[in-house]
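Listing S7. Sequence submitted for prediction.
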Amino acid sequence: MADLIQAAKSGDKRATLIALRDKLAETIQICESGRDMASNSKRLMEVMAEIEALPPENPKTSRHDKLKAKNENR
């Protein structure tokens, strides 16, 4: 859970969605309730779609440049 909290606090949407995806997958794996399994599976699929819809990361862009662009868009 700490990874999800850290990702959310960072403000990085991609990292937060990835951490949420991983947490949902863990929850589904140990789930014993059919109702919870269904709702968590649906949410997992939604989160995965959100991740896929994000623009690709540019590995050549530095963290500094990403923060600068984010601040300019405010």
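Caption to Listing S7: primary sequence and predicted structure tokens for the chain studied. Residues 30 and 37 are 9 Å apart (CA to CA). The chain has four helices and no strands.
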